[in-house]
Amino acid sequence: MIALPILGGILVLLGDRASGKGGGSLQRWVGLLASVATFVASIPLWTRFDRTTAAMQFVERHAWIPMFKVEYFLGVDGFSMPLILLTTFLTPLVLIASWDSIKLRQGQYFATFLFLEGLMIGVFAALDALLFYVFWEAMLIPMFVIIGVWGGARRVYATVKFFLYTFLGSVLMLVAVIYLYSRAGSYSILDFHALPLSITEQVWIFLAFLVAFAVKVPMWPVHTWLPDAHVEAPAGGSVILAAILLKMGGYGLLRFSLPVVPDASALLAPMVIALSLIAIVYIGLVAMVQKDMKKLIAYSSVAHMGFVTLGIFIAWTIFGRTGDTPGIAMGITGGMVQMISHGFVSGALFFCMGVLYDRLHTREIAAYGGVVNTMPHFAAFMVLFAMANVGLPGTSGFVGEFLVILASLQANFWYSVLAATALITSAGYTLWMIKRVIFGAVANEGVAGMPDLNGREFLVLGAIAAGVLLLGLWPAPLVEVLSASVDNLTTQIMQSKL
Amino acid sequence: MGSNIYIAIVLCPLLASLVAGLGGRLVGRSGAHAVTIAGVGVSFLLSLLVLRDQLAPGSEPFNESVYTWLVTDGVRIQVGFLVDTLTALMMVVVTFVSLMVHIYTIGYMHDDPGYQRFFSYISLFTFAMLMLVMANNFMQLFFGWEGVGLVSYLLIGFWYTRPTAIFASLKAFMINRIGDFGFIVGIAMVLAHTGSLDYQQVFAQSAALGGMQIEVFAGMPWSVATVTCLALFVGAMAKSAQMPLHAWLPDSMEGPTPISALIHAATMVTAGVFMVARMSPLFEQSETAPAVVMAIGATTALLTGFIGIVQNDIKRVVAYSTLSQLGYMTAALGASAYAAGIFHLMTHAFFKALLFLAAGSVIVALHHEQDMRKMGGLRHHMPITYWTTLLGSLALIGFPGFSGFFSKDAIIEAVGLSSIPGAGYAYLCLLIGVFVTALYSFRMFFLVFHGEERLDAELRGHVRESPLVITLPLVLLAVASVASGWPFIESVVFGGYFGGSIVVDPAHAVLDELGREFHGPGAFVLHGLLGMPLLLAAAGVAVAWYAYMKEPSLPGRVRRKASVLYTLLVNKYYLDDLNEKVIVRGTRGVGTLLWRVGDMFLIDGAVVNGSARVVDWVAGRMRRGQTGYLYHYAFAMVIGLSILLGWILFKRA
Questions:
Q1: A 401-440 near B (Cβ less than 8 A)
Q2: Which of A19, A132, B75, B335 qualifies as a FRET site for B261, CA 20 to 30 Å off?
Q3: Which of these, B423, B422, B413, lies nearest to B534 by C-alpha position?
Q4: DSSP state, B463?
Q5: What is the mean pLDDT of each run of 10 residues along chain B (653 residues)?
């Protein structure tokens, strides 16, 4: 039994204590050590994970607020475990990357990230709905602080927008959770899964959850907070935002919406599919005309996350068309793999943006050109991650998109065709940026004076590159971890609760 | 033999590429070329062994998986190899041309600062191409397919400071992505209707696909096989540069010449042809798809040949010639003459690689001059290049007895015998194409090697034959160009060399029909001596000789007389303008519109900030309500209470 998230939480506190003593390199080291220790502590989750069962593992259950039957109830399954590992893997890298580039209140910056890490792990591991909600809301605070304190010029607008968007969604989720408690008599998510509900109840609960999760994913049309938040956030904040925070939306859909209200999900799936396809096609086109690199990657994130929601929600179309389940598990698996991959790839691209920004202090594509001449190592990494973003086979970006495109054709020919347009649009915006930023002759004196990667940056990008390639060439281990949970979910959602 | 030999064939170039690319100064320049040549050389020798094994009587195709990529939903996607006679032939062609190009590159890229990177890329390309041809499933095919596309992208933009080069590389990748878009939909169709991505399992069910129907548009049931094949063929059109997805190939000449020979002539661009041949069990189930394939191939063969006549850049002439020859191969596929298409693929790989490398030899000798108007009379200075180019050109135009003669004649006759819709049109295109081929080939030949020297002043007297590392591959490829036809046509095209790896429906088995009249290569040559194609080719050479040797003022006069036609050809039928001005700008315009109007005006402007404004306004009104006077509050409370009480009473009653 592992009390990993608790451990993470304690380490966060330790990191914060250390930072209280004022500036200096000591608390950076303490912070880094804490995050590395969390990562090491999370490894047994992978190695000792039982791949044959969909039941919750590493469960930790204590009474918390007995009066309302709220419990401190943690556990992981195939959906949450990979996301926790993604979190613990990326956080140390964020800290390493921020080593020198953050000048202001370094200690507090590190501590904030450690807090954030603990809370994010909490979100993924919580099996009590109220506990989940507490983590979910609490997590907004450090993110809000990261953008608000260490952000760019328009950070106040961006933080307010970010906060209002996500907060409005969460309030509706809280209402839904309390209603479910009143019906089920406990806050345990597993009890919610078994709770019979009428279709009217289901639709309202579904919509309440959808608003909360759609904002996080983010789905079209509630995505506009993301480009602003990214643009204003410091590099490390962007990495965590894109790589992990967005995954909570997809995770929430898998943990709450589908199993708790399957009939409403079935009823409203066409709407979600439509929104996903709009995200893929519309946002792909919008991304093509961006002049700001971070905005471009942010829009690309929205389009890529469209594959996640598409992969999940085609289940009912397939079932409705064929009366059978082949293709459903493939879609959900594809969505999950896409989330993990997007964590790596978008994280890596935002790291790259940070590397460029540290040197030239601008995000304008037009301000760069010919970076390959002065930074060949960086250019190699950047092209690799760009190719992963484009979904080239052999990189992680391919696996999820491939599975979702394959599965969606079993639902409807045109879903697949529209989803596959991402092959063209993603190449358009990503490589157009690469062409203008990386290739060409040295554009100006600023670029001419840019030093190549230092060891610290090389380590960060190299670690993610290894992950991207490994996942692309051999996704079987990840898929194996998911499979029992995916199969279980497939049976859950096919059983009507009416 | 086990799968180890196949793993070795694939991994040798990959490892060599990694060593050369990541080894940096530890490996050095000579280390880079030594290790990559060794890697590809081993692959070539092992491929020969594999071919020998496949040719042995009673040999079976090898089909085994190496590892499981992933399992989901009961679908097991594996990485593995299917090696039969078709694959073995491709492996030998790919590794042989690649080896020649590796050696040649030592001379060609001698002074380039990106020497090591270049060797790393071409070895990586060889790896990806081998993965493509040796795959036993669609996922791996797609991996190789996009992998070669990636390396092609990197190599076209190899000289990354040149704006034209990086533009061309982006263009190549984008157009290929349009193809891949169709390709992946085709793969999804295959999975949806067979439940597998493994060739063997899919082909076993191919007959059923012909019977199934899908309603792509409501109320219009189409054959699953047709939809699948057409989607797959979109991929082949981009990769094998068939109109209208061909525009990237001429621009790809911005890359260094060795890769023009290897990737954009001999191997990668033929991947589409190979893929269709590999998918023959599926294409044979469709009525419509082969007709479309044939029409597009024949059109490409003719129209791109015309453009070749008006080009002045030596590499672009060869590039348009490649487009045209790919059209021949594609037309053969449409006529179900897969064996002839693949045979032409092989002979073309040799003579076209030769022509590119020879052009490169000229370019190096002239210090990177590519304009044929500034060449002429080079035969005295570069005898080896001259003679090898002559042999290559003769093979290209189908001189009797040379390799191209056998493969091209087989295609033309097969298309002539075909009875599918559009075969008559295709036959006509291919016949005229023979004349055009001879015309542009010998126009180039005469302009470069004969006539007066039109060199720049500083080059005169300094033109030398290229070094051995350049001429050796030329000579070896020339031997292959001449001799790879005669000994092999009987078995490859008519003799059932491909066995079970290519499936042809008896209803369109044109090659069988042709084979009944085949009495050995000698008789085939004699028959060819009396045929139309040879006459047309001879006419083409004669016209080229007259216009560029005898009467050099003629082309100018023709150009003025037929200025409309000339403008159309020089502007490549305005297809590039259509791409750039209409399609690319249109797409970006839509993107801008969605961004400005959709995201910024409607969602952010009206909804998000609008709701903020509404809140602001409401808050302002509310603030006015908070006057601070006690009697205002008391009054409001009284009113509120009475309304509430009234409501309760009203409800009771």
A1: 402-403, 405-410, 413-414, 416-417, 420-421, 423-424, 427-428, 431-432, 435, 438-440
A2: B335
A3: B413
A4: -
A5: 80 88 79 87 90 82 85 85 88 89 85 85 92 91 92 89 87 90 92 87 83 76 86 91 85 85 84 90 86 91 87 87 90 88 89 89 83 80 86 86 85 85 87 88 85 76 79 86 80 76 78 77 78 82 80 77 77 76 76 74 67 66 62 71 74 63
Residues of B in contact with A486 (CB under 8 A): 72
Residue from the list A393, A407, A479 with its beta carbon closest to the beta carbon of B70: A479
How far is it, in rounded angstroms, from Cα B543 to Cα A332? 64
d(CA B180, CA A155): 41
Task: Measure the CA–CA gap between A333 and B82, rounded to whole angstroms.
Answer: 28
A161, A403, A440: residue with CB nearest B160: A440
**Is it the case that residue A19 has pLDDT exceeding 50?**
no
CA distance A58 to chain B (A): 25
DSSP conformation class of A223: -
The whole-angstrom separation of Cα A140 and Cα A127 is 19
Predicted pLDDT at A22: 45
Rounded CA gap, B156 and B159, in Å?
Answer: 8
- For residue B149, give Cα distances in angstroms to A154, A356, A472, B125, B154: 41, 28, 17, 9, 9
* Position A12 pLDDT exceeds 60: no
A224 touches chain B (CB under 8 A): yes
Of A289, A428, A431, the CB nearest to B592: A289
Instruction: Give CA–CA dist B233/A186, Å, rounded.
Output: 57
Strands (E) located in A4-46: none
Spatial neighbors of A188 by CB under 8 A, at least 6 apart, are A71, A73, A127, A128, A129
* Alpha-carbon radius of gyration of chain B: 31
d(CA A338, CA A306): 10
Residue contact A330–B72, C-beta within 8 A: yes
For residue A368, what is the DSSP state?
Answer: -
The CA distances from residue B178 to A428, B244, B245, B334, B354, in Å, are 11, 11, 8, 22, 30
Q: Is B455 helix (H, G, I), strand (E, B) or coil?
A: coil
Partners of residue A413 on adjacent β-strands: none
Asked if A288 lies within 8 A of B588 by C-beta distance, the reply is: yes
Chain B neighbors of A409, CB-CB under 8 A: 185, 188-189, 191-192
Six-digit token pair at B524? Answer: 């085939």
Minimal CA–CA distance to A466: which of A383, A384, A355, A375? A384
Q: How far apart are CA A401 and CA A311, in angstroms?
A: 9
Contact B79, B66 (CB under 8 A): yes
Query: Using one digit for the tens of pLDDT, what is the confidence trace for A312-341?
Result: 998 888 887 776 777 888 889 999 999 999
* pTM beyond 0.90: no
**DSSP labels, A410-444:** HH-HHHHHHHHHHHHHHHHHHHHHHHHHTSSS--S
Torsion of CA B543, B545, B551, B557, to 10 degrees: 40
Decide if B174 and A431 are in contact by the 8 Å CB cutoff. yes
Q: Which amino acid is at A20?
A: G
Q: What's the confidence (pLDDT) of residue A384?
A: 92
- The CA distance from B71 to the nearest CA of chain A, in Å, is 7
Question: What ipTM does this complex have?
Answer: 0.89
How far apart CA A492 and CA A494 sit, in angstroms, is 6
For residues A262 and A253, is the Cβ–Cβ distance under 8 A? no
Q: Cα B493 vs. chain centroid, distance in angstroms? A: 23
Q: Please give the C-alpha separations between residue B561 and each of A190, B305, B440, B593, B621, in angstroms, as whole numbers.
A: 84, 20, 19, 46, 81
Q: Which residue from B minimizes the CA distance to A440?
A: B161
B71: helix, strand or coil: strand
Strand-pairing partners, residue A76, are A57
Of B71, B195, B594, the CB nearest to A479: B71
